[in-house]
Design brief:
The protein is mostly helical. It has helices spanning 6-13, 42-47, 53-64, 68-74, 79-87, 95-104, 109-118, 128-138, 144-155.
Amino acid sequence: MRVLPEEAFYEEMLPREAEDNYPLEEDTGLAEPCMLSADISLEDQLSNIGVSFHDKLFELIDESHLDNKDVWKRANLDRKHFSKIQCDQNYHPKKKTVMALCIALQLDLEQSKDLLARADWAFSPSNKVDLIVQKAIIDKQYDIMQLNVTLFKYTNEILGV
């Protein structure tokens, strides 16, 4: 077995051919790359880490020209829960909370996927709640109460509180 010093190991292992790495996602128009690149060092990639869920959420709220109160009401969240999201930059929301915020902010499907990913979540093709929420987003049906009626009918679950 060949033993390499740590520095030589990284020099040999990191610059791999593109086919040995995960395929890059196609450009979605979002500002940041989703995958690592073989052409850039790990240190450079880590120093250019993407915007956090918290920062992206409040950037989207600013862009929507909505008050925070309007957002938490439209997302069917209570004030305390929204305040926790706002005050704790490291808060990890539940998936249904992020989906409710996507509905409240009237995000399109790509923006919704991006916000979910920043909270370490993704839409699942095998989850009824996810499929119903995706359909509402695609159809631009952003009334959370109507969405919750549909969700409850098919899954006995709702978004928000």
